[in-house]
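Two quick folds needed for the group meeting slides. Do the first one here.
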Amino acid sequence: MKNTALLLVDFQNDYFSSFKDAKFPLENSEEASLNAKLILDIFRQKQFEVIHVFHENESLDARFFAKGTSGAKIYSLLSPLKNEKVISKNRPNSFLDTDLKEYLDENEINTLVIVGAMSHMCIDATVRAAKDFGYNCIVVSDACATKELEYDKIKIPAKYVHGTIMSALEFAYANVTDTKNILEGL
């Protein structure tokens, strides 16, 4: 596990209905964060690499994650420690216009355990980019969250959005697993 890092993507206040002023709450974000916390605790205990990525929207009329707001802050349950890498991004792909790849390469990381939100957006984009860069990707499905979508006047429940993305990632981009299995492997 020496060459493995935990990548926590966009666990931010605006995604949590339990956060008073949440701008964009997701389904199951609390449950996903509790599972991510279990994994995070083991990574910290074993002194494995932990990287937090958070999204900051530069636009003044941002629907959520507006830069400098409390909604854009990392959810308190998963707050970074001083020795953990924190990366700010403003695109769905955590690698685009950030130093994530350089940091992983400098620290000889070749495997990423990926958790976070939204499954259909930033998790999807980050996993695909990571795989394209040659990293081994493990996505912990029950430590990720998303929301209902709508297309062509058809409402798509969050569980189907999530399941579709996990299935697509598992096909060619990642080993998709759950918290129980990842904890047993650590």
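Then this one, please, same format:
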Amino acid sequence: MRETMEWLAAELAEEQAAILVTVTETEGTTPRKAGAMMVVLEDGSADGTIGGGSVEYEALELCEELLRQGESAIRTFRYVQGDGDRADGTVTLHFQYLDGGMLWTIQQMAEWAADSKGVWLLRKFQGARVTETAVAALGDWDPEMLQERAVWKDGWLSVMVERPGRLYIFGGGHVASCLAEAAARAGFRVVVYQGWRPEEVWERFRFAEKILCGPFSEVYRQVTLTEHDFAVVLTSDPQTDYEVLKQILSENVQYIGCIGSKRKLSACRERLLADGFRQEQWDRVHAPIGLDIGAETPEELAVAITAELIAVRRDALRR
């Protein structure tokens, strides 16, 4: 939602009103869960999604009415036949009218989202009225409120606007280029570390937030990994794979993956164990990398790896 909030801030600064639509509760099978958000402007443009289908169509119609009235509202909708497997679900949506009075808060969210600590929007509700609003990053609020999922507590609703952490891709080849785009489109903030000059690869990595350059044996000089980060090793040389893994294997990160054949990965494992790393540390490495979908091309491999990253992020992967 970072890009959405940046866009919304710019529109509010131009004195255009908006409706922030938030899924606050769900029941049954629904395409989006509590916390999903969509922004609708006076001119009819919109960004984000609350799940599509009949509910989103009805929500957009209601937004037009609320924008004319300058009002907020709460409504419950049911997905109807024709929305596929979503037909038995209901969602409760909060429609918050926004004008220039919310500009500072929206700007603050957009600015804080540039950090890797993550950003949450917290609102206290009294019926359809928002009585208090806060923006928080990790360490700034009750940690029980700052979760991946939306959280209700004491009348406050906390929704994650930007996830903490980044995806670090080590390597600058074809798979890395395809992965940078696929992962960015899935909501990962991508940093690429490779050995070429940045001006030579910006076009290939236009979806990356940042490109770092330097020897693979000195990754530690520019990269500090956190528990919220993901690391993918995609170099073309077994030696550089080993050099990168030697530096990151002890880090407490969400995910480490390494591309390569079983033979190459086995040789890398033996070298790392000989260096004093433990088997349980190596067991954390997803190698071979990516979900097994029979991928062969760089584009297919990027999809397989991104799918695995999403599964880890959503805590849906069982190893």
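Slide caption for protein two: The first strand starts at residue 18 and ends at 27.
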